[in-house]
Design a protein that fits this description.
The structure holds 2 protein chains of 2 kinds.
Chain A: H1 2-37, H2 42-46, H3 61-71, H4 77-89, E1 95-96, E2 101-102, H5 103-138, H6 143-157, H7 160-174, H8 193-231, H9 234-241, H10 246-268, H11 270-284, H12 289-298, H13 302-330
Antiparallel strand pairs in A: 1-2
Chain B: H1 3-20, H2 22-25, H3 56-92, H4 94-109, H5 112-122, H6 127-154, H7 157-164, H8 169-205, H9 216-225, H10 235-238, H11 240-264
Helix pairs in contact in B: 1-3, 1-11, 3-4, 3-6, 3-8, 5-6, 6-8, 8-9, 8-11, 9-11
């Protein structure tokens, strides 16, 4: 039996490890091949030969050739790939030609804000969504359950960018409760840590509220579905036959098992939270990765765009990884050393 | 069907009628410069005009066509393509199936919107770009769903019996698999349409739509781009209506899709 558990655990970590390896490889390959297989290149855009170019200043052909040589776009494919790998290993993501700074530096400035936003939103949404899901499954078939279900599905019908715009409009512009944009006020940078902390939380409130509302429905539906499935199991019937209280059955017996598929699904849907993050940061002018991506998009800074894609994907994968560990911890069948 | 399902189908029909009879409902074309810039609502311009003097009400009316067409087009293509691959993978199984499924799992973990933005940025901002990107990203979940369904259908005994009687694969497909898959495909087409409408307006909102085709997302984006939108009452007739239109359409798709799912899939009845 013990031997079996060990093989199973080994298998779990190996298959997970392989999956991560392939995912990272595919992201790297996408990031390398996309710009090279696409019609035109960054310089085609800058030189005005690309269709989507609407720049006032364009490059002449001599400068273009010079730039191509400088960025190594004139080299053979495999050589470019070699350089690409080398650069990645050194943490060099290229140079953002519009923002005139290394991509890695721009991203490093923005990453902490995005992490703060996305982690707190997902935690909050999971907590509230799971709570509401358990409650709904508990009161299944009643008015409460139906009301919750209809409410959360309606909530999901509001597009994130519209929801964010409305929240910004009412709380910041009409009521003046919250700041209009940014992650902190400039005047508090030098103030005491506690005041600074308050200021940051005050700026974080509305973006987190929006992203939480955008994320909560998925968690609610997952939990409700998983709970309803679990409640059909025989051991629940047995628990009920033993005369345990409904509360104890819900939280002590059904929830631990229902949580497993929920955690898996939350991990799978992290990528969607990254989408929400782009909208939310754009609307609230929150200086994270999503805002950076939107800024890079507006000026078609492709080096930066790719860097942001790469790091955002890695961020999502990393959170995925933590959830996988959490899953192994939750599921006693997968032992963690 | 449930009350919410009925509400969903009513709203959807309402929008379909608006889309069909758009030219009768408004005297202006969405791109026509029919008034002064930034007019307030009046009898001539029910929702005022935008910064270029175009009638916002007309843009919403014609935008219904754009949103509905994108929704239907993307969902049909995605369901056809994804459904076909899922069917083949589930039916034949084997190494190709396993490879495809692993690939789809990996593809689904990569955050979609950043990749969509990256792709869309390389192509000229026309409607075909948007549709192509949306189709590219929407077939994998369809393929997975259909595959799972096919796997359970495959084990049915009547299928086995038909095969023993000498039925060919194509016959089995048309006679047995497709009718059994149809309910799933129909509710998927509806839920996928809702996703496509949402994604299109999202891309437009982030500046990756066709500026000459006024979808609801594009109207919303233009409203947001107007600097004084939050400071003047203009948000009431410029920002709110397109957002509400998108919300209502998604709402109707969502509840209709769920109602159909429930109707066709009796095992779901207690759950939903």
């Amino acid at each position: 039996m013990k031997n079996f558990a060990r093989t199973k655990k080994k298998f779990y970590f190996m298959s997970k490890g392989l999956e991560y390896f392939f995912t990272i490889t595919i992201i790297f390959l996408l990031n390398f091949f996309l710009p090279r297989l696409m019609p035109g290149d960054p310089f085609a855009y800058l030189s005005g030969t690309s269709v989507s170019s609407d720049l006032a200043v364009t490059l002449d052909s001599k400068t273009e050739a010079l730039l191509r040589a400088y960025y190594g776009i004139d080299q053979p494919f495999w050589q470019q790939f070699w350089h690409y790998c080398q650069n990645l290993l050194q943490g060099n993501l290229g140079y953002a030609y519009y923002f005139k700074a290394p991509v890695a530096q721009l991203i490093a400035e923005r990453l902490p804000w995005s992490l703060l936003l996305i982690v707190s939103s997902i935690l909050l949404a999971s907590l509230l969504g799971i709570g509401a899901g358990v409650f709904s499954a508990w009161k299944r078939g009643t008015r409460w359950d139906k009301g919750f279900w209809a409410f959360f599905l309606s909530l999901r019908s509001v597009p994130t960018f519209f929801l964010g715009t409305l929240i910004l409009l009412f709380f910041s512009f009409q009521l003046n409760f919250f700041p209009l944009f940014g992650a902190y006020s400039v005047e508090t940078i030098a103030s005491a840590p506690w005041a600074r902390c308050q200021d940051i939380l005050w700026h974080l409130a509305l973006p987190v509220l929006t992203l939480t509302l955008a994320e909560i429905t998925g968690k609610y539906l997952l939990t409700r579905g998983a709970m309803l499935d679990t409640l059909q199991e025989d051991y629940i019937l047995f628990a009920r036959a033993r005369g345990l209280s409904e509360k104890r059955i819900m939280y002590g017996h059904a929830l631990p098992n229902a949580l497993l598929p929920v955690v898996t699904q939350i991990a799978l849907r992290l990528g969607m939270a990254a989408s929400g993050m782009i909208y939310v940061e754009t609307i609230f002018g929150y200086p994270g990765m999503g805002k950076l991506m939107q800024e890079a998009l507006a000026v078609r800074d492709f080096q930066l765009l790719q860097g942001v894609f790469l790091i955002t994907s890695m961020m999502v994968l990393l959170m995925n990884f933590f959830l996988d560990i959490f899953y192994a911890y939750l599921d006693p069948r997968v032992e963690v050393r | 069907m449930s009350k919410l399902g009925n509400l969903g189908i009513t709203i959807l029909l309402f929008f379909v009628l608006i889309a069909i009879f758009a030219p009768l409902l408004t005297p202006y074309l969405p791109n026509a410069f029919s008034g002064q810039p930034l007019e307030n609502p009046s009898a001539q311009h029910l929702l005022g005009t935008n910064g270029a003097g175009q009638d916002i009400f007309s843009q919403l009316i014609y935008g219904t066509r754009v949103s509905l067409l994108i929704g239907i087009f993307v969902s049909l293509l995605a369901t056809l393509f994804g459904g076909f691959l899922g069917l083949a993978a589930g039916y034949y199984g084997g190494c190709c199936d396993r490879f495809l499924m692993r690939f789809l799992d990996i593809f689904l973990t990569i955050p979609h919107l950043p990749l969509m933005l990256l792709l869309a940025a390389y192509f000229p901002p026309v409607l075909t770009t948007t549709i192509a990107v949306l189709v590219l990203f929407s077939w994998p979940p369809e393929a997975k769903l259909v595959r799972a369904q096919v796997l359970s259908l495959k084990k049915r005994e009547y299928l086995e019996a038909a095969r023993l009687a000498g039925a060919k694969n194509t016959y089995l497909f048309y006679r047995y698999l497709l009718p059994d898959l149809a309910p799933l495909l129909i509710s998927q087409i509806i839920l996928r349409s809702s996703w496509a409408v949402l994604a299109e307006s999202g891309l437009a909102f982030l500046g990756l739509g066709d500026p000459t085709i006024k979808s609801w997302g594009m109207v919303l984006k233009e409203a947001i781009s107007y600097e004084a939108i939050y400071f003047t009452p203009a948000w009431q007739w410029w920002l709110l209506p397109p957002g509400l239109c998108i919300t209502l359409l998604i709402f109707s798709f969502t509840f209709l899709g769920h109602a159909l799912e429930e109707k066709f899939n009796p095992t779901l009845k207690e759950v939903a």
